[in-house]
């Protein structure tokens, strides 16, 4: 873990320096050096700007120095706009001059060169933006360190942006004025300073309300977790758009869980656990940033919207259901207040189409919306039109929205029903008032869903002593690849996961005795090493109630498979679920809970939780699954032991966490949930290779 105070000082020198030196300024048209000089000079930065170019120094009347050591004072931050072949020497000169931060635009494609540069910068305790960066903008300070033109008149606000793609940064900053950025960084190759470092720094800035991250990869997992925790502690929303997916099956997974869960899913589960929000597109990300930047929080789960179209409000209601958002049931007092301002024949409903003949529309919309927002059951309000500028009716609606906005402290946004609406002019006006205008109803619904999901998070991986049997199992399992089912069931039992009575046998006689001791019908399974899916290969015999049945099953399995035979109690029927844990190399263990048995491949419904977690957290997650309704006695079926399933999931998460350095993946499929409990009847376990 990086020392936070020194890291913060280096980031201050990078993003908020008192002095900056531009190495490689140029008089050549359309050169990086000339464009950089213009952006820094005209951005409004109040700090000292110094320039270096040996070719231009003599004719510059002292404006440009020949080298860094000829500058009047050591620069805090040195920007290198030089050819790749000169970068390493320029880095040496900058560090020798006492720079605490550097920005490098060159791609520096030679990995060995980047490593040398990184080692030098880290040894000096400095920060480095790049290489291969498009630079950064600190709009709050008027500092534009980039050779790529971006409007210089952008208004500062509370949105931080960290992008592992310069073109994404350019797209958001060049094309729409509704987002008011504080700082925006193109991180480049992150040879030294990572996205996690930038996030941690932005969280500490007083103007920050929300931070957006466009991520291809997380290069500093622990730093990322720490930064997300800091953001949650300060109620700063973090919105992430992640690209690039890879499957854990590429790591030779043996379980369904390992094959079905990808790295992207683990990151999503982690972000959710840390209180962040995942966007599905750049438009969704922009919508979330705009809504969170308003700074208001939803005070109730319900939403309200006002329209000028009946069909539009029906479409909005459908979209709300798709995003698991509920329209608030308005109180009688609210309904009466709305009805009093509507024209005859228009019903006071939520969502509300308040348009009649248009007579007195400004007062109608203002008072109706204000009444909706005052209702205790409404958490967020939306004013939905085909917003466009230079239209007298929408000018009236804009005034009504502004009037209503001033009467509430709840989140309130304008929404264009069509993402290509000509709303840019209005968006800028609304932004000045603190009102986001979101283009596209789907984007708006995604943003509202994120806003309503936002809230306090519990401490991440709170410290507690390991399970009393954890060290025993580390010693037993360490260095082994394949863990047999009998040993796996014993492991589960030690950690509080209920499992059937069982015995491992090598002869028919031992099978008779084991079945007699267990009592009742039994199951026989091959225990052949390395065979993870026994049912698929005919390695499981169920419902064996007589000695003859046990004998026939034993003989058949012994003839077709190698190794011992597992004799186990036949568990009473119930709903089949599956639980599995994978150990992500970056973020640690996560547990997948899903319908089990054959449905693990057929039903694409599951929840993934970062371990460890409580039984209450597991129960809440299971309850959100459609399959979870089967546990609650759907359509006359018996109520099953859902709480025991949640307890087993929490126990598996503890097992996965305590043995994270020993086990690579664990799966229970199925775990049978009946009216009495939840019992693990299968174990697939792989340890880390020695």
Automatic annotation (TrEMBL):
This is Acetyl-CoA synthetase, putative. One of its GO terms (molecular function) is metal ion binding. The keyword Nucleotide-binding applies. Residues 489-542 form the ATP-grasp domain. InterPro entries: Acyl-CoA_Synth/Transferase, ATP-grasp, ATP_grasp_subdomain_1, CoA-bd, NAD(P)-bd_dom_sf, Succ_CoA_lig_flav_dom, Succinyl-CoA_synth-like. It holds the Pfam family Succ_CoA_lig. It comes from Ruegeria pomeroyi (strain ATCC 700808 / DSM 15171 / DSS-3). Keywords: ATP-binding, Ligase, Nucleotide-binding, Plasmid, Tricarboxylic acid cycle. GO terms for biological process: tricarboxylic acid cycle. In the N-terminal section; belongs to the acetate CoA ligase alpha subunit family. The lineage of its organism: Bacteria, Pseudomonadati, Pseudomonadota, Alphaproteobacteria, Rhodobacterales. The keyword Cytoplasm does not apply.
């Amino acid at each position: 873990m990086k020392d936070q105070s020194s890291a913060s000082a280096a980031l201050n020198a990078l993003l908020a320096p008192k002095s900056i030196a531009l190495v490689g300024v140029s008089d050549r048209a359309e050169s990086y050096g000339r464009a950089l000089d213009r952006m820094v000079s005209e951005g409004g930065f109040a700090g000292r700007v110094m320039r270096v170019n040996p070719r231009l120094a003599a004719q510059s009347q002292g404006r440009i120095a020949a080298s860094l050591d000829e500058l009047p004072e050591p620069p805090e931050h040195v920007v290198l706009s030089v050819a790749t072949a000169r970068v390493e020497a320029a880095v040496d000169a900058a560090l020798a001059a006492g720079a605490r931060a550097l920005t490098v635009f060159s791609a520096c494609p030679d990995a060995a060169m980047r490593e040398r540069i990184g080692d030098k910068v880290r040894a000096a305790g400095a920060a480095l933006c790049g290489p291969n960066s498009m630079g950064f903008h600190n709009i709050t300070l008027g500092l534009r360190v980039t050779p790529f033109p971006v409007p210089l008149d952008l208004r500062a606000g509370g949105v931080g942006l960290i992008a592992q793609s310069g073109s994404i940064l350019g797209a958001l900053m060049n094309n729409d004025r509704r987002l008011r950025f504080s700082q925006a960084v193109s991180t480049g190759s992150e040879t030294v300073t990572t996205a996690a470092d930038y996030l941690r720094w932005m969280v500490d800035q007083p103007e920050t309300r929300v931070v957006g991250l466009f991520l291809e990869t997380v290069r500093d997992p622990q730093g990322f977790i720490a930064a997300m925790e800091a953001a949650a502690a300060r109620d700063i929303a973090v919105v992430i758009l992640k690209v690039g997916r890879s499957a854990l099956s590429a790591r030779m997974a043996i379980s369904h869980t390992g094959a079905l869960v990808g790295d992207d899913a683990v990151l999503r589960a982690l972000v959710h656990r840390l209180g962040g929000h995942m966007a599905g597109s750049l438009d969704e990300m922009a919508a979330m940033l705009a809504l969170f930047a308003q700074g208001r929080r939803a005070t109730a789960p319900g939403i309200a919207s006002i329209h000028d179209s009946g069909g539009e409000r029906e479409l909005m209601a459908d979209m709300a259901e798709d995003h698991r958002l509920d329209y608030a049931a308005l109180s009688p007092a609210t309904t009466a207040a709305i009805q009093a301002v509507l024209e005859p024949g228009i019903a006071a409903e939520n969502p509300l189409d308040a348009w009649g003949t248009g007579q007195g529309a400004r007062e109608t919309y203002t008072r109706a919306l204000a009444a909706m927002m005052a209702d205790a059951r409404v958490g967020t309000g939306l004013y939905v039109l085909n917003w466009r500028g230079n239209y007298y009716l929408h000018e009236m609606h804009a005034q009504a929205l502004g009037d209503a906005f001033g009467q509430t402290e709840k989140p309130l946004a304008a929404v264009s029903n069509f993402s290509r609406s000509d709303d840019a002019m209005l968006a800028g006006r609304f932004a000045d008032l603190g009102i986001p205008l979101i283009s596209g109803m789907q984007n708006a619904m995604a943003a509202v869903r994120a806003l309503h999901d936002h809230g306090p998070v519990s401490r991440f991986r709170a410290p507690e002593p390991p399970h009393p049997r954890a060290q025993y199992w580390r010693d037993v399992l360490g260095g082994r690849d394949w863990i047999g089912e009998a040993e796996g069931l014993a492991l589960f039992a030690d950690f509080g996961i209920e499992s059937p009575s069982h015995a491992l046998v090598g002869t028919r006689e031992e099978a008779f005795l084991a079945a007699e001791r267990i009592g009742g019908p039994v199951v026989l399974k091959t225990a052949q090493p390395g065979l993870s899916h026994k049912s698929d290969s005919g390695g499981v015999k169920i419902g064996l109630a007589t000695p003859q049945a046990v004998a026939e099953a034993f003989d058949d399995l012994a003839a077709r498979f190698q190794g011992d035979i597992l004799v186990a109690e036949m568990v009473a029927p119930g709903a089949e679920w599956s639980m599995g844990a994978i150990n992500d190399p970056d973020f640690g263990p996560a547990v997948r809970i899903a319908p089990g048995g054959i449905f693990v491949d057929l039903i694409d419904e599951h929840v993934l939780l970062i371990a460890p977690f409580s039984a209450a957290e597991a129960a809440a997650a299971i309850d959100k699954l459609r399959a979870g309704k089967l546990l609650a006695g759907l359509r006359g079926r018996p109520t099953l032991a859902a709480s025991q399933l949640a307890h087993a999931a929490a126990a598996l998460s503890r097992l996965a966490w305590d043995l994270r350095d020993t086990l690579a993946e664990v799966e229970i499929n199925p775990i049978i949930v009946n009216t009495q409990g939840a019992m693990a009847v299968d174990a697939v376990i792989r340890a880390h290779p020695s």
